[in-house]
Amino acid sequence: MIATLSLRLLAVLILLVVFTAPPIAGQSPNTATMIVVVTDQTGAIVKDAKVSVTNSATGALREAISGSEGSATVPALSLTGTYTVSVSKAGFGTEERKDITLRAGETATFTVKLLVGSPRPQPRNMMNLPGRKGSSAALRIELLRML
User: Fold this and answer.
1) 31-114 sits in which CATH class?
2) Can you give the pTM of this predicted structure?
3) Mean pLDDT by 10 residues, the chain (147 residues)
4) Per residue in 28-56, is it b (16+ CB within 10 Å) or e — as a string?
5) Do the beta carbons of residue 110 and residue 97 sit within 8 Å?
6) Inter-residue contact 112 to 64 (CB < 8 Å)
7) Which of 57, 68, 99, 118 is the one with CA 20 to 30 A from 139?
């Protein structure tokens, strides 16, 4: 009789614990992880590249360095806002990816290709060229010089 009562009490306690414990598997994390693989234009990995991840909503900046396998991991990123990723290394230009959106629990992996040499030239404002006074001929001459 005592053994039966003890078994029933144990069964009730087990059921209580099982049904009142928070559902661990059902919870979704409120962060995401970003893995950035850095290569050059030939596809070879680039180690020691600086990877900067900026949250557009908060301005929070996280930085990492690509390792020997060419990747940099930035964990625990907030889901608020979008992200801009900037990758740079001496001897290479800087590459940027904008408007990256993350989902809860996601590990977003993407490749950024760095070009050997100086950063990409910025476009010139043709309206502010020296000597331009509305003449299309001056504009054509300047365009030809740029080629």
Assistant:
1) mainly beta
2) 0.63
3) 61 55 59 97 97 96 98 96 97 96 95 83 52 51 57
4) eeeebbbbbbbbbeeeebbeebbbbbbbe
5) yes
6) no
7) 118
Read off the amino acid at residue 94: T
User: Domain ranges in the chain?
Assistant: 31-114
Q: Which tokens hold the place of 106?
A: 């996601």
The two three-digit tokens of residue 75, written as one number: 């964990």
How confident is the model at residue 76, as a pLDDT? 95
